[in-house]
Amino acid sequence: MANFADTGDHDGEHGAMPVTCFLIRHGADWMLWDAGLGDEIAASPAGREMVGLHFRVPVTLASQLAELNLKPDDIRYVGLSHLHADHSGNAALFPHAIFLVSPTELAWASGTPTPNGVQRDRVTAVLRSKIEPIAAERDVFGDGSVRMISTPGHTVGHHSLMVHLIRTGWVILTGDVAHFAVNYQRDLVPLGNANRADTIASIERVKGLAAHYDARVVVQHAADVFTAMPLFPAYLN
Questions:
Q1: Exposed/middle/buried for 48, CB within 10 Å: 0-12, 13-18, 19+?
Q2: Rounded CA gap, 171 and 191, in Å?
Q3: What is the pTM of this model?
Q4: Tens digits of per-residue pLDDT, 35-67?
């Protein structure tokens, strides 16, 4: 875990972290936030090694959609916080969706050599799809209830998502602004981030937005992401 803080705070630590996707219903429309690890990893029960980490997919995204009586073609939007393989892994599952992604992020991920943590075929799948580029902010449905916000630092075109739910109120899905709760709380920056100052500025921006909107902050790789939220197929509303 040492690579997740350039200050040495995680030196000597070992642990596991979840890889998450979030499904958002807006009227008759569905939006998927982040596309997780590729479902093909499920074919390897022992998992696979990638970027120095060991990944497993015990339950596929496709099967979870089916449990909700949804098909990939039912998803109108796929919003990507960034293009690392654990957030874009199932991009090819949604060839008819509209992808919401930063053009800066696409240019970076398409570069040569392929950046660390990016799988070229996942970027290609996005490029073959319909893309609505998100340079900075985006009100996804035009009513202020789902907003992509610019939070660069982990990667050059990283975004987070603000969602307003009827009962819960505002929720902020942070992407990889911070990987763990302690990183978010103490502004800890991973070694491989694109820009240290931007990372800290984005963490502080999310904290400011959370305070202003009294929002629930979901650190997407934090260990308590499942215990702190309803377990699928239950949901926040």
A1: middle
A2: 28
A3: 0.96
A4: 999 999 999 988 888 777 889 999 999 999 999
